[in-house]
UniProtKB/TrEMBL annotation:
Binding site for a purine D-ribonucleoside: H8, E183, M184, E185, S207, D208
Subunit and interaction comment: Homohexamer; trimer of homodimers.
Gene3D superfamilies: Nucleoside phosphorylase domain
Enzyme's top EC category: transferase
Gene that encodes it: deoD_1
Endpoints of the signal sequence: none
Residues reported to bind phosphate: G24, R28, R47, R91, I92, G93, T94
Protein name, per record: Purine nucleoside phosphorylase DeoD-type
Assigned protein family: Belongs to the PNP/UDP phosphorylase family.
Isomerase as UniProt keyword: no
Length: 237
């Protein structure tokens, strides 16, 4: 444990709850705090990566932006786990559907996170590491989705370093291996959690279907995100 705040987080030790909800967009973190939490206190504004702590149904919860891509969430989640004594991080983001099982507004629970990233090379492992979610958080999310009649599909997602891929066949190749959806952060989050002995889960809302060209409007995305937020809030410990 090093001294806090860090170069990326202005919070002092104890100002962040044991469970952190982490959307990519810091303004989404602000929306969650203002619309779902009570007695909120802002703990971070460094680099405009907004973070708040409050209560939800009596539970102390924090919410903080994680940015775009594995380098960004890699920094923030590492510091939360290792410097701020956070036990659980639940990423709540958007994804592009790769599977015919998924449609716009569906929820994906990322049981595993395949990746085209080189993030795991830092561990110098004698093989390939499989980034996976916390079983406890995953099972709780599945149960909460069922209780609320939310269509949630559980399985393997792709965390990609590339948004505009020069290889136009890449998604079809991943699809052939059973990948459900593509996003850009979960694998790094899961690896950081594994190294720290902590818990992580990625919940995603399908906002577009790259292989068919379908996508949600801004208003639709707002409504769909709310369902995902509620699941995350309910399973927070």
């Amino acid at each position: 444990m090093i001294n806090t705040p860090t170069p990326h987080n202005g919070a002092k030790l104890g100002e962040i709850a044991k469970t952190v909800l982490m959307p990519g967009d810091p303004l989404r973190a602000k929306f969650i705090a203002e619309n779902f939490l009570e007695d909120i206190v802002q703990f971070n504004s460094v680099r405009n990566m907004l973070g708040y702590t409050g209560t939800y149904k009596g539970k102390r919860i924090s919410v903080m932006g994680g940015g775009m891509g594995m380098p960004s969430i890699g920094i923030y989640s590492y510091e939360l786990f290792n410097y701020y004594d956070v036990d659980n991080i639940i990423r709540i983001g958007t994804a592009g559907s790769v599977s015919e099982k998924l449609h716009l507004r569906d929820i994906v629970i990322g049981l595993g996170a395949s990746t085209d990233s080189n993030y795991a090379s830092q561990y110098n492992l004698p093989g390939t590491f499989a980034p996976i979610a916390s079983f406890d958080l995953t099972s709780s999310a599945v149960e909460k989705a069922k209780e609320n009649n939310i269509n949630a599909v559980i399985g393997n997602i792709l965390s990609s370093d590339i948004f505009y891929n020069a290889d136009k066949t890449a998604l079809e190749k991943w699809r052939s291996m059973g990948i459900l959806a593509v996003e850009m952060e979960a694998a790094a989050l899961y690896m950081n959690a594994a190294e720290a002995g902590k818990n992580a889960l990625c919940l995603l809302t399908i906002s577009d279907c790259p292989l068919t060209g379908e996508s949600l409007s801004a208003e639709d995305r707002q409504l769909s995100f709310t369902e995902m937020m509620k699941i995350a809030l309910e399973i927070a410990k």
